[in-house]
Design brief:
Distance between the termini: 75 Å
Number of helices: 7
Strand order of the largest sheet: 1-2-3-4-5
Largest sheet: 5 strands, parallel
Order of helices and strands: HEHHEHEHEHEH
């Protein structure tokens, strides 16, 4: 194998005279390149829409966040960012699809894995380099590098910039299926409050298993890194405005509480600044329309008190687990279950009882 990178001209042509090979043998020239995916953030207004930041590039993430927080400081004043006013930054789940390269990929791979990946890059195209085992080992290292960079350059940088601005970080990870390579638990390592998500679901179908795994992941991250609070994007719905009352919502909150969550974050209570525009602002088709225009708004105090008191009581305890389960490193935890559902009602397990006394 020969690296011809230095023989590539600026116009894209290759200046190389191939050595003669034995009869029956041919050279295969493979060109690798990268480009932007063109993925934009969503949902957002036209003015707030642009290319997604490179989540494997710490300086790019920092520049994005400093600009973003700077706009808040310009609008509200720096004194209202941090201890007063805006006190927390929430990173939602990654839902913009996969990325697998960054301009410093070669450099970062060498730093993290200890060897030059260049001779092995053809394996990314399905070409066997060396033995099958050697190619598989490189591909494993490549995926681990992506996971490590996502955790350090994206989530780690977010936490650093937030703390520099006296903000705390609520951090979600992948939430559902496998939208990006990475370790769900390590992603939330740098957050002040690890966070998951639970959407509403029909009684017959039960919740998606990925969301149960996501909550258990967040609840596992907290004690590993000495954190007390575990949050969850809660009661998220789609295409169901004004469709729920507390009697419908209680089972979702209860499932969160028994799965390790002790700080539900209602999705969504959008600010309604005026009374003559009803139902007011919303997050398009998503979320609970949890605002004062809800038909049961004046009766909501016992419901909100139930969530608050249950959360407070659970915050007083400390998780004790006698079993550690290793789920592997080959795929994100939420990617192991696909579209499977978690059965809400399992059939009883047959049991045998002995009537004899010792």
């Amino acid at each position: 194998m020969i690296d011809l990178s230095s023989r590539l001209r600026s116009d894209g042509t290759l200046a190389w005279i191939a050595p003669r090979l034995p009869k029956g043998k041919v050279w295969r020239v493979l060109r690798l390149g990268w480009s932007l995916l063109g993925t934009t953030n969503h949902p957002a207004t036209v003015e707030a829409t642009g290319l997604e930041v490179d989540k494997y590039d710490g300086p790019a993430v920092r520049a994005y966040l400093e600009h973003y927080l700077g706009m808040y400081k310009d609008a509200a004043g720096a004194e209202l960012i941090g201890q007063r006013g805006v006190r927390a930054l929430l990173t939602d789940s990654i839902e913009v699809g996969e990325a697998n390269w960054t301009p410093r990929m070669i450099e970062q791979f060498r730093r993290l894995r200890g060897y030059d990946p260049t001779p092995w890059l053809p394996a990314l195209t399905g070409t066997l380099v060396g033995t099958r085992d050697q190619s598989d080992r490189f591909l494993y290292d490549f995926r681990r590098t992506l996971a490590d960079l996502l955790a350090s350059e994206h989530y780690g940088t977010i936490a650093k910039v937030a703390h520099e601005n006296a903000l705390i970080v609520y951090g979600e990870a992948l939430e559902d299926h496998r939208p990006m390579l990475g370790d769900d638990m390590t992603m939330r390592k740098a957050t002040d409050i690890p966070m998951a998500a639970l959407w509403t679901f029909g009684r017959a179908e039960g919740p998606r298993q990925t969301l149960i795994a996501d909550m258990k992941g967040a609840a596992s991250v907290a004690p590993l890194y000495g954190q007390i609070l575990v949050a969850a994007e809660s009661m998220t719905a789609s295409m169901a405005p004004w469709a729920f009352a507390p009697k419908d919502l209680k089972r979702f909150i209860d499932l969160e509480l028994v799965t390790g969550v002790n700080r539900p974050v209602i999705h969504t209570s959008v600010h309604v600044p005026v009374d003559d525009k009803q139902p007011g602002l919303s997050l398009f088709i998503f979320g609970q329309y949890f605002n004062r225009n809800e038909s049961w708004a004046e009766l909501a105090k016992p419901w909100v008190d139930y969530i608050a008191r249950s959360s407070l009581l659970l915050e007083q305890g400390r998780k004790v687990a006698d079993v550690a389960y290793f789920h592997g490193e080959e795929a994100p935890l939420t990617g192991l279950y696909g579209a499977s559902r978690w059965p809400m009602r399992r059939p009883p397990t047959p049991m045998t009882f002995s009537t004899s006394m010792p």
